[in-house]
Amino acid sequence: MPVRLALIGGFLPRRCGIATFTTDIFESLAVAAPDLVVDVYAMAPAAIPTLFDPKVRASITEGDADSFIGAAGQIEASCADLIWLQHEFGLFGGLAGDMIFELVDRVAAPLVVTLHTVLAEPDVDQRRVMERLIARASKLVVMSERSRDLLRSVYRADEDQIVLIAHGVPDRPFGRAPKFKPRFGFEGKRVALTFGLLSPGKGIEAVIEALPAIVEGHPDFLYCIAGVTHPNLLAREGEAYRERLQALAVSLGVDGHIRWIDAFLESDELLDLLEAADIYVTPYTGAQQSTSGTLAYAMALGKAVISTPYVHAAELLADDHGVLVPFNDSAAIASEIQYLLGDADRLLMLQKRAYDRSRDMIWPVFAARTHALIEETRIRPKASPLPARIGIDGLRRICDDTGILQHSIHMIPDRAHGYCIDDNARALMLMHRLDDDARGECGHLASVFASFVQHAWNEDKRAFRNFMGFGRNWLEDTGSEDSCGRTLWALGTTARGARDMGMRQWARELFAHSSASALRFNSPRAIAFAMLGADQMLASDPAHALATRIVEEGADRLIALYAAAARADWQWFEPVLAYDNCRMPEAMLRAGVRLERADVIACGVDTLRWINDVQISPYGHYRPVGSDSFGNDYELPRPFDQQPLEIWAAIDAASAAYDVTGDDIWLTHARRAYEWFSGCNDRGVMVGDPLTGTSKDGINPRGLNLNEGAESVLAYQHATYAIRDFIQKVG
Q: Are 2 and 36 in contact (CB under 8 A)?
C-alpha cells in the first residue's frame, strides 16, 4: 500500500501565506515522492466562499465544529499514515485556534505540526493550545533556530520532537533583474519591493516615510508595494488602511515614487516581480515573527534584503547575508537603501550572499527532508508470536507483604499512591491461573492479596474499602461500586479456582457475607463484575441462592439499561463509553447460559459485536477505547489513551461468545486484541514484555506511557493466560 499523507492547511486559491506554503508542499512532494498519496484538507474562511482546486480532497470551514469532525472521519476512513498540519493561531477558529482539536483528537495517525508562529510570550489561550499540540504531536517542525529554542525553553517540548526544516523556496537562476524590469514598467528604475498581505504589522509606513530622503539623492528610485489587503482587515474596515498609506505618500510628496500592485499574484507572476527588483524590504513592526515566506523567497531570488530584526530575519540575515535596521526607524531604512544604491559592489555582494544562503532551502531539498520525516514518523504495526511463557519479575517487583502497589514511575514502584483493592482483587484472581513455574515463585502472594481483601471489608458500612496508603492506613470508609463489584468477582473466582481448599472456603464465606451489597449497585460495570463473580460461585455451588439472585437481577438491569440507551447506530448499555467495556457483554453471555435465557444471550452477542466493531481500526488492528473517549454521549471512540485493561476484557468476552456460538471469529477477535501488546497497534510499539511479564501503562499520541502500574501488569498477565486457554479450548 502506498504511504498516504493527510495535509491540512490553507490552499490556493485562498489568499494567505499558509495557503501558498501548503500548495507548494503538495506540489514539491508530488515531484520528490510520486508514490506518496497526499490528500489535501483545505481550511476555508467562514465568511468568504472559496472554490478549491480539484486536488483538494475536502475543505474544513473555520469555526465549524461539524466540519472538523467530518474531516477527522474522512482521514480515519482513508487510513492515512500521517497527518501534517500547518498551524497558525488564527487559521482554525475558537480560542487561539483550539477548534483544530475537534479534528486531531479524533484521529490516530501520527501528527506532524509545522508551527508557523512560536510565541515567546503567549497569552493563556495560546499557551494552552501550544501545550495540547505538543502533547499530541509526534513531531514539531519549525523553520528557525529561535523557534526551536522557544519550544524547549518556553513550552518544554522534548528535543526529539523538534525538527528544523527551513522554509522552502523556488529555484531560479541568479541576476536576471534587467530581463524582468521591462515586464513591470521598471526600465531605468532602481526598485525596492515589499510584498504580502497588507496589514499594519508589515510596517510599510516606515518605508514610505523614508522615501523623501532616498529620492532626493536617487530620483530614479521606485518602491513597489504588492499585495491585497489582508482578508480579516478588509472585512473589518475595507481599504481604509491602504488609503491611509496612500494619503501619507501624497502628504510627503513621494506618491510618484510608489507603485501599488493591488492584486494577489499567482506564484509565477510573483516570482517574476521579485526578479525585477533590486532590493527587498521587510519592515515588520513585531519581533515575534517566527517565519517569513516572503523573506525566504526574496533571498532565493538573489535580492539584497533590508529588514527589521524580527526572529526569522535576524537568523537568516546574520553574518552579512542582509541588512538589519531597528523597528520603526525610517532614517535607518533611508540610510541603508541610499548606501546600497550608491555602492554597486556592496549591492551585488549582498545579492549573491542571499542567493547562496538559500540553496539548501529550495523546494526539492525541502521536499526531500519532508519525505524523510514522513518515512521516519509513520507507523508500521507489527505483531509477534504468542509467547511460550510469560515471566513474573515485573509482577513481583510491585508487590510487598501488604499487597500490590498501585502505580510505578517507569519500573520503580511508587509508594506515594499506596494500594487499592481493585488491583489486589485482580492479583488474587491471577494467582489461581498461574502455571506451575510461576506459582512456585510467587504463589505465596495469594494469601497476601486475600488478606488485603479481607481487611478491606468494612463491617460498619457493609462495603469494601478501596484505597490504602503506604502506611497501611485506609483512606476512605467505602470504595466505589466498581471496586466493590470487582472484589466480589475475585471472591467468586477464588471460591471456584483457588488451589488451596482453605482459601476456597474463605472466599465462599466472605462472598456470602458481603455480596448482598451487589443488589444495590447502580453502576453497570459494578453490576457486571458482581454477575461474573456470582457466575463463578454458581459454578462451584449451583444452589447458591444469593449468587443466583445477583445474576438474575443483574441481567434484568443490564437489559433495561440497554433498552433505554441503544439505538440503530449505538448497540450499547449506556449513551457513553468508558473502561472495561467488554465486561458487560461477557457478563450477559455468562448469565444467559447460566439462566438459559435466549434474550440475555442475544443482548450479550449483539453488544459484543458492536463494541468489537468500534474497536477495530480502519487499518485492521485492535484499537481499544481510550480514556479520551469517556463520557461523550453517543460519540464513537477517540483513539487515545489506550490501556491494557481493555485487552484482557476483550479476550475474556470473546471466549464467552465462542462458548455460546462456537464461531471461530471470536478467536480471531481475541488474537487481534492480544496482538496489541506485541506491537500491532496505533503506534507500532511493544506494550507488554513477555520476558519480565510486565506491561507499560498504555499508548498515548506520542507513543508509550512508560510507567508500569499494577493494573497494566495484571491485565497483561491475565490476557496472556486467557488467550492461551482460549486457543487450547478451540483446539
A: yes
C-alpha cell at 114: 509545522
CB atoms within 10 A of CB 256: 12
Q: Give the DSSP per-residue string, 354-369.
A: HHHHTGGGBHHHHHHH
545-588 pLDDT, tens per residue?
A: 999 999 999 999 999 999 999 999 999 999 999 999 999 999 99
Span 362-373, pLDDT tens digits: 999 999 999 999
Residue the block writes with cell 433495561: 560
> Phi first, then psi: what are they for 458, rounded to 5°?
-105, 105
Looking at per-residue confidence, does 146 or 126 come out higher? 126
How high is the pLDDT of residue 13? 85
Q: Is the omega angle on the peptide bond into residue 682 within 30 degrees of 0, that is, cis?
A: no
Dihedral in degrees, nearest 10, Cα atoms 563, 568, 574, 576: -170
Q: 457 in helix, strand or coil?
A: strand
Q: What angle do CA 373, 376, 377 make, to 5 degrees?
A: 85
Q: Is 450 exposed, middle or buried (0-12, 13-18, 19+ CB in 10 A)?
A: buried
Q: What is the mean pLDDT of residues 421-445?
A: 92
Maximum separation of any 2 CA atoms in the chain, in Å: 109
Instruction: For Cα atoms 436, 486, 614, give the angle at the middle one, nearest 5 degrees.
Output: 95
76-79: list long-range contacts, CB under 8 Å, 24+ apart.
76/106, 76/107, 76/108, 76/618, 77/618, 78/4, 78/6, 78/39, 78/618, 79/1, 79/4, 79/618, 79/619
**DSSP-derived pairing of the beta strands 467-468 and 412-420:** antiparallel
Task: Note the pLDDT of residue 714.
Answer: 98
Residue appearing with cell numbers 515463585: 441
Instruction: Indicate the angle between helix axes 240-252 and 204-217, nearest 10 degrees.
Output: 20
3-class state of residue 104 by DSSP:
helix
What 725-731 contacts at long range (C-beta under 8 Å, 24+ apart), as own/partner pairs, is 725/433, 725/655, 726/651, 726/654, 726/655, 726/658, 726/667, 726/670, 727/386, 727/667, 729/655, 729/658, 730/658, 730/664, 730/667
Q: Which has the closest alpha carbon to 547: 590, 604, 589?
A: 590
226 grid coordinates: 504588492
Please report, for residues 297, 310, 547, the alpha-carbon distance to residue 593 in angstroms, rounded to integers and kept in the order given: 72, 73, 15
Name the residue among 176, 431, 119 with its Cα closest to residue 303. Answer: 176
Q: What is the DSSP string of 553-615?
A: HHHHHHHHHHHHH-BTTB-SSSSSB-SSTTHHHHHHHHHHHHHT-HHHHHHHHHHHHHHHHHT
State how far the Cα of 295 lies from the Cα of 624, in Å rounded to an integer.
Answer: 47
The three cell numbers locating residue 473: 492506613
Q: What is the pLDDT confidence band of residue 54, given thresholds at 50, 70 and 90? A: confident
pTM of this structure: 0.88
For the cut 70, the answer to whether the pLDDT of residue 89 exceeds it is yes
The one-letter code for the residue type at 315 is E
Distance between terminal CA atoms of the chain?
34
Locate all alpha helices (DSSP H) within 161-239, ordered by sequence. 177-180, 204-217, 231-237
